[in-house]
Amino acid sequence: MDPPRNMFWGLVVKPNKRYETEVQEPFRITKACLEPSTAEGKVSSLLLECENNEEFIIANLNLKNFNENIDLAFNEGEKICFKVDGPGTVHLTGNLLQSEEDGMNMMEDSDSSSDDEEENVQIAKSKKAKVESDESEEDES
Fold this sequence. Notes:
Blueprint: E1 8-13, E2 19-22, E3 27-34, E4 44-49, E5 55-61, E6 67-74, E7 79-85, E8 90-96, H1 100-140
Antiparallel strand pairs: 1-8, 2-7, 3-6, 3-8, 4-5, 4-7
């Protein structure tokens, strides 16, 4: 069985630019950091735009609060767009997630090993039952 994937993911979001994509591999964002030299002493808001064109503020960053822990996950096929409102450049970091297909393969592997364990338990019980019945027959004679 392959070990779980935990590969780094990152994106640098510059002001006045849109970073649109259709997610190819599921990923999670865990941190947003403001590049201090670009902040100009003002607030920079990291925005996420979803498929329905709705915008959400993910983080408001400035020189007093230049990083934010976040926990956002995106699945394959989702259309998303990141942008910054304000002067600062924002660095997003996180990791790639295991795809559903990979997860299903792991579930199948664990199911089959669980089936094997159940089968071994059944065999052990039947051997124990046979030993016990053999012993009781010997006691009767």
